What we know:
The protein is of the alpha/beta class. Helices cover 41% and strands 15% of the residues. The protein is built from ten helices and eight strands.
Amino acid sequence: MTDTVAERLASIRARIASAEQEAGRPTxxxxxxxxxxxxxxxxxxxxxxxxxxxxGENRVQEAEGKWPxxxxxxxxxxxxxxxxxxxxxAREAVALFDVIHTVDRExxxxxLAAEMTRQGRRPRLFVQVNTGLEPQKAGIAPRExxxxxxxxxxxxxxxxxxxxxxxPAEESPGPHFALLAKLAREIGVRAxxxxxxxxxxxxxxxGATHVRVGSAIFGGRTPLTRPPExxx
Length: 232
Ligand SMILES: *Cc1c(COP(=O)(O)O)cnc(C)c1O
């Protein structure tokens, strides 16, 4: 890729706007979370200069090393945790992140609730749903999602804003996005975190309110599962 982060961001934003329009949705109704995992802090500067403020990280420890100094310079940054959360990292996660997309079990809900009370900080929360029932993937099973969201509210006092999913890599994502949207309607939550570099336009068609786009903005991550680009 010879174009710059700013150019790629502009292109993704234009594609999001077209997808919103095509779906008959208001412009700006699908928020872009720029997934910056594996890229160093200095790579964030051009994205920040281009006005990007929502960023996604999948590891608490990596984010702790990268973001505090950038947030000090840009207090309107909104940090999203999109990777699995261990309960022994709940303290750091609540301190650093504004939105946590990966609440998926009772122990995490309890740990987050305790930390939110202790710190007086209330990150917005999404419940991750394992729509493909993949054993290696985090997330609550679709049929258990409604009861889990209700327990988050009733037992732990947590307001759940929406649902998040990562469809199986080898399957067509549409049915997974449709399932997540249906569950959100049934449960009565508004937000849908779904769609990545390869499928964010499809996700917007199915109602995504947050798309999580990494490699299409920052470039490929190593090690890549796909072969390197041939030399031009
Ligand atoms: C890495 C990651 C993304 C971004 O994936 P790309 O294909 O690089 O856009 C989105 N969501 C989650 C949960 C991720 O871990």
